[in-house]
Amino acid sequence: MKDKKEEVRRMLLNYYGKIASGHRKGCCNEVLSCCGGPQKNDEVFGKLGYSPDVFERVPREANLGLGCGNPLRSACLKRGETVLDLGCGAGFDCLIAAGEVGEEGLVIGVDMTPEMIARARENAEKAGCRNVDFRLGDIEKLPVADESVDVVISNCVINLSPEKERVFREAFRVLKPGGRLAISDILALKELPQEIKRNPDLYAGCISGAVTAEEIERILRKVGFVDISIEPVPGSSSFIRDWAPGVGVDDHVTSALIIARKRV
């Protein structure tokens, strides 16, 4: 099992490292084709609920088209809060959040891919953001202090982890009492067929690692979260089916918004 987890880790490092360095366009390859350049990325993120004026504040280079929802719509960020983004990528959600929490707040982005962290820091420099801190690390073992974060966000990342319970335990650990979880992710609608589960491209493309809403709720309750809400994103099948044309993945997975709270 340990070897399998390490194999997944190496595959993801290679896959997303190539995206960050420009050697792979978004999640595209011989199977997946969800991207189409900056204009397509903007179009998809518009459908996910991001306002057009966000690109007046955030460099377009930060939008790699890798999200499946908009966790910030439900994060209800306040001035002065500390926000943690699990799997921050090139920094898109972090830079938006930085504007919402203001200079007195802090946004921490954690990503396992060195190329992504480098790109996120470049984008923060372009945006003139001084209240962001991008850290190289694993979401299963966060480089973040206990009870130091008000809100944990994530966008289409936790499905990639083969150790989802560890991820949520870490999120619980770093949240302050009363802290909030607001996550957009891909969830399975039913048991995934073996041909999907065994496809490495579909795993890296946020499909094969998805589990059901029932499983996510079970983990959240086991870890200690309360006030749990898991709601599918309306219309998400319209862009999910484009991730793997002809495979029918939209019959098996959906984008969902996961909200929970750490008890005071």
Helicity range: 25-40%
Number of helices: 10
Report, as a whole number of angstroms, the end-to-end distance.
Answer: 36 Å
Please name the fourth-level CATH homologous superfamily.
Vaccinia Virus protein VP39
Overall mean pLDDT stands at 90
**Form type:** globular
- Major β-sheet strand ordering: 3-2-1-4-5-7-6
> How many domains make up the 3D coordinates?
1
Using DSSP, what is the number of strands? 7
User: Largest sheet, described in full?
Assistant: 7 strands, mixed
Residue ranges: pLDDT <50 for 5 or more in a row?
A: 27-39
* CATH hierarchy, class: Alpha Beta
Strand content: 15-25%
CATH topology description: Rossmann fold
N-to-C series of helices and strands: HHHEHEHEEHEHHHEHE
Second CATH tier, the architecture: 3-Layer(aba) Sandwich
Round the Cα radius of gyration to an integer and report it.
Answer: 17 Å
Question: Which structural class fits the helix and strand makeup?
Answer: alpha/beta
Protein name: Arsenite methyltransferase
GO molecular function: arsenite methyltransferase activity
InterPro entries: Arsenite_MeTrfase-like, Methyltranfer_dom, SAM-dependent_MTases_sf
Family: Belongs to the methyltransferase superfamily. Arsenite methyltransferase family.
SSE layout and pairings?
Layout: H1 2-20, H2 38-47, H3 72-75, E1 82-86, H4 92-101, E2 106-111, H5 114-127, E3 132-136, E4 149-155, H6 164-174, E5 175-188, H7 194-197, H8 200-204, H9 213-223, E6 225-232, H10 237-240, E7 253-262
Parallel strand pairs: 1-2, 1-4, 2-3, 4-5
Antiparallel strand pairs: 5-7, 6-7
Helix pairs in contact: 1-5, 6-9
